[in-house]
Amino acid sequence: MPIVCENLGRRFEDVAAVESVSFRVEQGEFFALLGPNGAGKTTTVHMLTTMLKPSHGEASIAGFDVRRQAHEVRSVIGMVFQEPALDDRLTARENLQIHAALYGIPGRRVKERIEQALEWGQLANEARRMVRTFSGGMKRRLELARALMHDPQFLFLDEPTIGLDPQGRRHLWESIAALRGRGLTVFMTTHYLPEAEACDRVGIIDAGKLVALGTPAELKTSTTGSTESTLEDVFIELTGHQLRDEEATPRDRLLNFARQGGEHTR
Amino acid sequence: MIATGEPLPRVNRSMFAPRVIWVMWRRELVRYGRNRSQIFGGLSRTVLWLLILGFGLGASLRQIEGYSYAQYILPGVVTLNVLFASLQSAIALVWDRQVGLLREVQVSPAPMLSVALGKLLGGATIAVAQGSIPFLFIPIIGVPFSVTKLLLAWAVMFSMGVFLTAFGVVLASRMRTFEGFGSISNGVIQPLYFLSGSIFPIRGIIGGVGFLDIPEELRNELARLGVYAIGGGWVVQLPVWIRVLVFANPVSYQLDLLRFVLLDFRQLPMVVDLLVITILPVIAALVAAVAMAKRS
Known about the structure:
heterodimer; A: alpha/beta; six-stranded mixed sheet
């Protein structure tokens, strides 16, 4: 069963973050949602993963309605957020233990699952280190391993390569490529276009509307008339040259505050 | 996906998941254990208020209803530590939601009621630990103490901790961003503390034995008004507007019960104290769970 969205939209007060998007992602597919800053990528992912309630339209994952069957949806998906969603005062292992409890992984299986996840993320030797001492790449690896710990059928990645160095990016792609062979459906957002070239299909979203949908090759021929072009050409062609300036979100402001020294309540 | 071995069973669906409560509770405690600055804060607060203010101001005030000033404010300083600990645990939620573990929790199938319960019980446990710091100074200020008193005090402090953490969680869930604990300390903790009868009595006699002798008739008159004069001194009557604020503050009743447990002295009706201590945490916990579970 695939990911289906039908006329899905979300308004924040008067502003439509996502006006209306409709698409389908088939089982086992690797799908990327592209778009400039503020286009509605994260809002779309948050609606699909039950983090945000849609204002209108329908969406379902594996046949479960994201609005009414949130619990079922949550049990079959794994999610990696744009900013780390780890407790950085706990160790890597402690974070995974919490995940195991949240997903109801039976007690006798927890240890084995945690060891496998640490192994997979190449963090076995750092298991007892506090996450706040980890680099961005290590955190990402830990989060990805964690998101897979409960055998999800769908993996959602929101801007997974932000802040990673080329080695980290390469490792991430290799890890994901290795998973695709096993029937996992991967849905990611990005504005880093070379990454999307390897996807089965891409959707391009701008100003809350889906402006293109197809395989990278299809989009190149239909938009620029040449298979020689890159997705970046397609992207600029469809979304224009205008710069996208966004206001800092509360999260950005909080992160900045943390970088400047933060607060003892953390 | 990355695992070998048989597939995992499906997650069952229930609002009450003891294991989730347990891990969330333990998480709070582990974080507390690793945060020395919080323990230091509790210790320095206690020294400032209980010893320096207690003995400093106590030199002028001599006695309140037969208790030395340091003895009188002991339950208040316990309450102050409980207030700080509870609100610090709760406000950490703002971080947690934007750049921490809470989003991981929200996207999981774990029931939010259990997550919230773990958080509140964790916050309350830390509050009891922080609130117990002033007990270390009991030998210096000289209050008769016993195991029974300690256990009863812990029970009151725990209830206070649940209520205040829940109150803080509701507050935190309305805050989108956060730039310093100062506003919480000055805007929430201190008003609740100052307006709870913690550092000055709502009514009573201050002064000292032999300071001013109260004639028998006046003593009886006062007793009819509910002011029991042990010894002698000035009769305290707060301005009406402060009294109204004190009566409106739920912490006043919790503190009053705590003072009754520790010093055998109360200023407010016992029935109200008991109702506040038993019912309020339950209501607040439910409101907090709803606030945490709300999808934006």
